[in-house]
Amino acid sequence: MPNLLRPHGGGKLKPLLLEGEALAAERARAGSLPQLRIGSREKGDLIMLGIGGFTPLDGFMTRADWEGVCEGYRMASGMFWPIPITLSAEKPQVDSIKVGAEIALIDAENGEALATMKIAEKYSIDKARECKAVFRTDDAKHPGVAMVMGQGEMNLAGPVKVLSDGGFKAKYGALFMTPAETRAEFTRLGWSRVAAFQTRNPMHRSHEYLAKIAIEVCDGVLVHSLLGNLKPGDIPADVRTEAISILVEKYFRPGTVIQAGYPLDMRYAGPREALLHALFRQNYGCSHLIVGRDHAGVGSYYGPFDAQAIFDTQVPKGALEIEIFRADNTAWSKKLGRVVMKREAPGHTDEDYIDLSGTKVREMLGKGIPPPPEFSRPEVAKVLMDYYRSIGG
Questions:
Q1: Nearest CA to 221 among 129, 147, 325?
Q2: Of 15, 94, 115, 351, whose CB count within 10 A is highest?
Q3: How far is residue 120's CA from residue 200's CA, in Å, rounded to a whole number?
Q4: Which of 293, 240, 237, 236 is nearest to 270 (CA)?
Q5: What are the tens digits of pLDDT across the range 101-147?
Q6: From CA 378, how far away is CA 371, in angstroms rounded?
Q7: Ramachandran assignment for 252, one of left (phi > 0), alpha (psi -120 to 50 degrees), beta (any other)
């Protein structure tokens, strides 16, 4: 039997989603509790708590946890954690809730009860301080900063009992896999070395190349696509996952790739988000995370390889068991007629490359121009062109 990495913290997976009679009873009880409506970001975090993706957390963080994570990448317990997992609300509503009380957390979009929560602490935070720590900026144009600054002014901490997967299974079917499910599938396939490929975009030729490089030294690759909210202009999850499915079917060796999705919203926190991506991929059973240029970045807020360097500077020995594959700049080599890592292509000048960029591809698609084969496989390009035509773009 293959030996997969232990979940973060060294224990067992800790899914907080109730089942069976316990779920039915807690759902009924939730109807009698005071309600707090939560937005998309908190919902994604809550569902990750529910499925065990945020093992070993048992709920939303305290002020001591928040401060420790912001300033030193550690919770009050000493557990390594790179980004605060917090629940915010407006002060008048928080004032009406007593410490020790229980509340129901309600999906703001559809009114569904997502969880119950016992309030352990109420506290205020310095949002600008969090933004500077997590995003390295408090510029309101940064989408992650805008998200934090738009949250309620108070935080609530405490353990949760999760009542729903938030509709992700109904919407995405088999694509929505829990950490227990990916671990079971890796075990079924006999995989122990599994590389996670994080994506919020369709895979272009450079991404395909990086995944295939990882397959050479691993048993397989988990193409793990974000299913939560993105910034305006990014390609929706259903379109992205369709394009990826076609790419995997036609251009990868059978039995080497699993595509799955996870429920978080994108934070665009660059290096810190790369750490979080590694941490929860360990929970999903992966041994490696592919970290390339500008991982989880946006604009020019981070250096192109800051998300690699942070693993050297901020992860204490033993804090994470998962390792990273460091991907260099990739480009299409006119000389070789294929995608290469520039560091492994001696004798090339800048004129010998066609640089590959998801941003360039989106720009072309938005103008109705099919991406050239050096950028995108034709079957993938067709899916994307059909999408842009459907939105009149």
A1: 325
A2: 115
A3: 35
A4: 293
A5: 999 999 999 999 999 999 999 999 999 999 999 999 999 999 999 99
A6: 8
A7: beta
- Catalytically annotated residue among 200, 272, 281, 362: 200
Please tell me the distance from the alpha carbon of residue 9 to that of residue 55, in angstroms, as a whole number. 8
| Alpha-carbon separation of residue 178 from 19, 152, 173, 182, 323 (angstroms) | 14, 29, 12, 6, 21
* 104 in Cβ contact with 113 (< 8 Å): yes
Tell me the CA distances in angstroms from 156 to 62, 66, 123, 290, 301, one per residue in order: 8, 11, 7, 34, 30
293 is catalytic: no
Q: Decide: 107 and 47 in contact? Cβ < 8 Å.
A: no
pLDDT score for 393? 58
Q: Is position 229 annotated as part of the catalytic site?
A: no
pLDDT in tens, 344-354: 888 899 899 98
